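Troubleshooting: if your tokenizer reports a length mismatch, compare against these two reference records.
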Amino acid sequence: MHKRLLNEATIDLTIIPKGPVLIKASDTGADPTRPDMEFVRTWHNGERVVYLPGPSLKGVIRSHCERIARTVNDALSCDPLDNKKSCGAHLQQADPGDKVHRSSCLICRMFGNTVLAGRVRTKDGYPIDPDQVRTEERNGVAIDRVYGSVAVGPFQMEVLTAGAFTTQIQVRNFTIAQLGLLALALRDIKLERVGIGFGKSRGLGHVTLSFDRLTLRYPRRPSDPTRLPGAALLLGADEAERYGYLKVNGHQFGYGQADDDAGRQLPDGLALHEDDWSDWTLDLTDEAKIEGIWKACIPAWKQVAGLD
């Protein structure tokens, strides 16, 4: 299924810290004047800057998607830390692609496992204006749970307190239910319900985000440009069944995934159109309209989660 491009969603985001944030560098070096825990840095546009690593952001999004999925239906997400309940532990590299996909849970189909490649890709977040980025040094200690005294420390932490960082999420061969679940996770980050980085229980990691751009792309013309089709519909009935999408009550329904046969109706005034490269696209920069797309995807998520 990854050998073809059925559809693609590209989401441009701006992430803004709403309090101290720390994503620790793996190696702080030998300089005794630097904090014990330094914020991760890299070279970007010719200067060394703090940044938000793509794998860290993807891990936060996946973890929260798992939490949402397990809250409504345990069958939608395996436990990657338990070999008895992990999708990857029961699959082999030599297994056919359709079997691997068919046997994986909703979360593994989105983010991948040790055998299946993920559909969600997250880029590093770089500062829009490095001059606006602010970091400060804070002191901390670890308290002995028995005696209430200092067990470790004091130690120094370099935390991010100001700045704006742009990143991008790409989702290929998505179903509408998957977009709905991803939208819920991003909404919760925007509402400061989900933290990132180190020390979330200490009050660190609060961020918010804004949706800067959403681009939906289809290499082939959809049957109805005013409706949003998912991957299960675009595969066709026979192949959809092979990959784990079964026809039930007039809907393409698979283990952990569902799509309306006719696609999801786009909000009023929006439609896919053919661009100069013969792709069928919808390109939005209005945050209200982007959130309108997310809300149009929620019914598909509710259907697969058994909430309807």
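Reference record two:
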Amino acid sequence: MLTRGAALLIAASMAAALPAAESLRPTLRTSDSKPAIALDAQVPKRFGDWREDSSMIPILPDAGLQATLDTAYSQVLARTYINSRRQRVMLSIAYGNDQSSEATAVHRPEFCYSAQGFDVEDAGGATLGLAKAPLRVQRLIGKMATRFEPITYWITLDETATLPGLSRKMQQLRYGMRGLIADGMIVRVSTVGLPATAAFQLQDSFVADLSAAVPAPVRSRYFGS
């Protein structure tokens, strides 16, 4: 048991450390010094062989989860695209200007799809050879009744593409130690009606076309650099 003197010493040490802790708390947002993100304007409705298909809406969260997303993110975009071969890809992007905590993890497909009643399987990772820089992505398979939905997603912090886990936490720490609050987004594409291999190949082609179509000044914010 601590003596009264030892307890007082610990309390005094903690009090003395508070100003230092406050001084280390990140205060500068990376988004304040860069072109603003505007998902609806910067993600084209038509590019390459793709155009928006308003007849099919991607899976949307229930009201409870949507309320959480509205708190964690400042912008959310959900569209379906179709190409000349009548193949469809669903795109969902959620952007927030504060990615300094794990609060934004609620939008990860592992959780978002599970909350909608899907069984979600890990299908491994992959690296897409985009024109400007390789992009590391996570693959999943979502299943519910007869619906089979292969999913590809990635996360960005500022201009760095990353994945959930240690890599993302280390990136958050690096920004925090520099007094910065990184913005970022989670980008998800998925396909219904194709086997996994064909679906992922189509998604890879879609992501490459989208990368080329997003305006150059903000491209690294969507795909990393």
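Descriptive notes for reference record two:
- Confidence is low (pLDDT under 50) at residues 13-23.
- Residues 101 and 169 are 9 Å apart (CA to CA).
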